[in-house]
Write a structure and sequence with these properties.
This protein has 839 residues and is an alpha+beta fold. Among the domains are: 238 residues, Beta-galactosidase, Chain A, domain 5; 127 residues, Golgi alpha-mannosidase II (Immunoglobulin-like, Sandwich). Helix content is 28%, strand content 26%. It is built from 19 helices and 41 strands. It has a 9-stranded antiparallel β-sheet with strand order 3-8-9-10-11-18-15-14-13. Helix 9 runs antiparallel to helix 11 and helix 9 packs parallel to helix 12. The two termini are 41 Å apart. The structure holds 2-acetamido-2-deoxy-beta-D-glucopyranose (NAG) (7 copies). The site of one 2-acetamido-2-deoxy-beta-D-glucopyranose has 4 residues, from loops.
């Protein structure tokens, strides 16, 4: 952890900080000696945005190059979208849906798509898009000559980024943070000689663009503020401002630039608001900047404490890196990472970066009116005024993956922004359900924006025709409840869950004896049209596996939820249960894999990046090793995709790491993690490459969950066959009396133990257990400690012994009650701690 020692006492007088002119002691930060720092010996280039360091407080995101003399800090505010809500339901939507249903039932898929491209698509075609707010231009006037001793870093241990360099005879340091408790960005500039800080700060929104910009002006002698509004009937107003506060020296404004001359040290504060949260964003920005009264040290201390409160909830150790690995800068270590060259401490840093980014981009707001928003495709770090895919919320895997890690790594209390969006979608989606489908309940297609726009998105055939976005997203509420047992959260979200189910009850139509979604598709995948000419492919079909399985899950859970919440609605429970029985079952396809569609189509794109047909294995859990037929077929499906180039860089690869863990395929999990690091990430920032976008946040945020799947699982459920029995039967969502099964080290890759063993502390398992576990260099469990936080019981086992099989796995024992066996029951008294070792 970096801590500067200041020989200064600062006090606030009027709007300036004055201090005794004494030199700050600065020394080379030696980031290589801190395993929790991403670091570099050069600043980011002017157009290498994805190699900058991301900093955020949930609402505001900044991206840093650490350039010594002219730093163009990219600024984002998470409510800054291209405009206000757009009502986009196609006026011919309902009649087109009816025609498409008929054509699809008849196998006239291309015809259905052709109609849909005019009558189903949104009018206009797209939701609002996320926008970059602009740049904070930070010019630091240096003594001249070469800059030397350069180092920049991002600390995932303290949530602070920095840069260090010397120029002339002066050594400089910057620290950058985005504070949640003080709701402001602060950049602190110091030098080891008094009077050496000379700065110019101004804001722009593209030097030659000024899009939606109405003003850029000085304020209060120490600040600059720019802003404007979207060109709408109901415009979104925005403002961004920066202030310099210095210790010694002089702060003035000239034009819309803030100048700081000959200061001993200085802090640049940045604030931004839009009319999504503030009625007068400009006034809010100016008054927030003026009101800053804490010193940087106080702001920093509060920020670090707040960040560490979340970041410190869990730790991961995958063994020791070699001293030569440790001596290298991050980009070289990333580049050196291959399946045969593992760097354990770097892998742990890669893991914790996912949690860092989540804490920096998903923060609930305090007070009654929580307007917090979840991270979009780029989190809150976008550098483009026309970002790839609009940097929206894509809900056919991407927003899902953004939240995968939060439950299992102890960050469930940071999920409110997601639940807020689901509630917003519920309201908007009810209008789409009624107008486009003549259905009750709510529907969302494959994208949404901050206004919950739920109409179809784009005219991209494999993506557009999919009405199950809200259905997949609502399973996050179910999982949230499973991990935490939080009944208040479940009660709050139940109306949304119910509305999603109500839509399905209305929308499903009969096809070949089953009740199915139609029109629908298996997200972004295509098949060869049976009898079609010349390899003709299509995307739409009735009842794709993903839809059936998402609905199976929510229909199964609703009666459970009603029981938990004391909702007496037997009729509704019966309706969903009856409908569940009419869904098409899981089946095998011609390759012996899990069928992706109801018909056993030939795949047009067997290496597709989406693993939609494996959703019932991960993230859901209808397919487990208790049913070896389905489990082996799922493995065949994964292998089939991989053999055909599936699981390419980014979120698809991260998904395969999770799938491999859940399938007990440790070598695949390991090698895909290694290539995600070595080939699919920006070496300097460790951020996930985004295919055609510079980067995409999902592939970074999903990493912790994907890796943990090899260390700890809790998605299976069991029914004891007798009260005292360890003979267990597999159970699934909706079964009464089931208990979760916690698997310790189900699929530990050899490389994760070979460098001195390892440990994980503070993992969360379903039913409210906090799990610490450690293993030796052979990968053998040393000990595990399971603490019941929710007062629920569970079973625990070591390794991958299937439920309902021969029970011939490794016996473990509970030092508390002496119980031993392959599967042992954990009594879940609240606060009880169970220590598990080999028997
Ligand atoms: C970095 O290492 C140098 C030389 O070993 C030492 O003088 C300096 O104090 C170290 N800096 C920090 C911040 O630990
Ligand atoms: C650095 O210090 C040396 C000796 O103190 C002096 O001769 C030189 O002019 C200084 N250089 C700068 C750029 O201030
Ligand atoms: C990455 O490693 C490859 C060899 O593995 C090497 O050719 C290349 O120069 C390295 N790139 C960087 C940026 O270190
Ligand atoms: C909409 O559904 C209702 C029954 O819920 C039905 O009475 C009505 O005719 C339908 N309208 C159209 C246009 O299909
Ligand atoms: C496995 O699942 C398939 C498909 O649902 C089912 O037909 C079969 O009976 C199941 N096998 C076991 C052992 O439960
Ligand atoms: C478990 O309970 C059954 C009756 O349900 C009894 O016959 C059996 O002896 C018990 N076994 C143990 C190990 O207590
Ligand atoms: C456990 O039993 C299964 C099924 O009989 C068998 O395939 C497996 O090899 C056995 N495992 C061990 C460790 O004996």
């Amino acid at each position: 952890m970096s801590s500067l020692s200041y020989a200064v006492t600062a006090f606030l007088a009027a709007t300036q900080f004055f201090a005794l002119a004494e030199a700050v002691q600065l020394s080379q930060p030696n980031s290589s000696s801190n395993p929790w720092r991403i670091w570099d010996d050069e600043a980011g280039g002017s157009d290498t945005f994805a190699e900058y360091y991301p900093v955020g407080n949930g609402r505001i995101g900044i991206m840093l190059s650490g350039n010594p003399s002219t730093e163009s800090i990219r600024i984002n505010e998470n409510s800054f979208w291209s405009g206000s809500f757009l009502s986009r339901v196609n006026p011919d939507g309902l009649s087109t849906v009816r025609e498409m249903q008929e054509a699809i039932s008849d196998g006239r898929y291309k015809e259905a798509e052709e109609l849909g491209l005019q009558g189903y698509t949104g009018t206009p075609l797209s939701t609002r898009h996320y926008d970059k707010m602009g740049n904070l231009q930070l010019v630091q006037i240096l003594p001249g000559g070469e800059t030397a001793n350069y180092e920049r870093w991002l600390g995932v241990d303290d949530g602070v980024a920095g840069a260090y360099f010397s120029s002339g005879n002066v050594t400089y340091q910057r620290e950058y943070l985005a504070s949640y408790p003080d709701d402001i960005v602060a950049i602190h500039l110091t030098a080891n000689q008094p009077g050496s800080i000379n700065l110019r700060v101004r804001l722009d929104r593209g030097s030659d663009l000024n899009r939606y910009q109405g003003y850029s002006e000085p304020a209060n002698g120490h600040s600059t503020v720019m802003g404007g509004q979207s060109p709408d009937a109901n415009p979104l107003q925005w403002a961004a401002g920066a202030r310099i506060a210095s210790s010694g020296g002089k702060v003035t404004t000239l034009g819309d630039t803030v100048r700081c001359e000959n200061a001993d040290e200085a802090t640049v504060y940045f604030q931004s608001w839009t009319s999504y949260r503030k009625s007068d964003p400009k006034e809010a920005v100016i008054s927030d900047l003026s009101a800053v009264s804490k010193s940087f040290d106080e702001i920093r201390a509060a920020h670090v404490a707040d960040y560490q409160e979340y970041a410190g909830r869990m730790s991961l150790n995958l063994g020791d890196s070699t001293s030569s690995q440790r001596s290298l800068k991050t980009s070289t270590r990333m580049n050196n990472t291959t399946p045969d060259n593992f760097d354990p401490e770097l892998a742990s840093l890669f893991f914790q970066l996912g949690r860092y980014l989540f804490i920096a981009s998903s923060r609930p707001e305090s007070g009654d009116n929580d307007l917090s928003l979840p991270p979009n495709l780029q989190g809150i770090w976008n550098d483009d005024y026309s970002p790839m895919w609009g940097s929206k919320y894509t809900v056919n895997i991407n927003l899902q993956m953004n939240y995968w890690s939060s439950l299992v790594t102890g960050l469930s209390d940071l999920r409110t922004p997601l639940n807020n969006l689901l509630k917003t979608m519920n309201g908007r989606g009810a209008v789409v359900a009624a107008d486009m489908y003549n259905c009750s309940g709510t529907v969302t297609h494959h994208n949404t924006d901050i206004w919950g726009d739920s109409a179809p998105q784009d005219n991209y055939t494999p993506g557009t025709f999919w009405p199950m976005g809200a259905t997949w997203m609502i399973t996050h509420v179910i999982e949230h409840y499973r991990f935490t047992g939080d009944k208040d959260m479940l009660a709050d979200m139940f109306p949304t869950l119910k509305a999603v189910a109500q839509f399905a009850l209305n929308f499903l139509t009969e096809h070949k004896g089953y009740m199915v979604t139609n029109p629908s598709s298996s997200p972004e995948n295509t098949f060869l049209v049976p009898g079609g000419s010349g390899g003709e492919s299509a995307a739409v079909s009735p009842g794709p596996t993903i839809d059936n399985e998402l609905l199976w899950e929510i229909f199964s859970f609703i009666p459970e939820a009603q029981d938990v919440l004391g909702i007496e609605d037997e009729a509704f429970a019966k309706r969903v249960s009856n409908m569940r029985e009419k869904l098409p079952p899981l089946r095998l396809n011609q390759y012996g894999g899990i069928a992706e569609w109801m018909e056993d189509f030939e795949e047009a794109n067997p290496g597709n990046g989406h693993m939609s047909h494996l959703v019932p294995l991960y993230p859901l859990h209808h397919i487990t090793s208790a049913n070896q037929t389905l489990f082996k077929a799922a493995i065949t499906s994964l292998e089939h995709r991989l053999e055909n180039g599936g699981g390419p860089c980014g979120w698809p690869r991260v998904w395969t790491i999770a799938l491999a863990g859940r399938m007990f395929l440790p070598d695949i999990a390991h090698s895909r993690l290694a290539t995600q690091m070595g080939e699919c990430s920006w070496g300097r920032s460790m951020l996930n490459m985004g295919g055609t976008a510079p980067f995409q946040i999902d592939g970074s945020l999903g990493v912790p969950a994907a890796m943990i799947e090899s260390l700890l699982q809790s998605h299976e459920n069991v029914l004891p066959l007798a009260d005292n029995s360890t003979a267990l039967q597999a159970a699934y969502t909706g079964d009464k009396g089931k208990l979760p099964l916690i698997r310790l080290l189900p699929s530990l890759p050899k490389t994760w133990s070979a460098n001195g063993g390892g440990s994980a502390k503070g993992l969360r398992a379903r039913s409210g257990f906090v799990v610490d576990l450690s293993w030796d260099s052979d990968g053998t469990l040393t000990a595990a400690s399971l603490t019941s936080e929710a007062g629920n019981s569970a079973y625990v086992t070591l390794g991958k012994t299937p439920v309902g099989g021969a029970n011939n796995g490794t016996a473990i024992q509970n030092s508390g009650d002496g119980a031993s066996g392959v599967f042992i029951h954990l009594d879940g008294d609240k606060g009880s701690v169970h220590t598990i070792t080999l028997a």
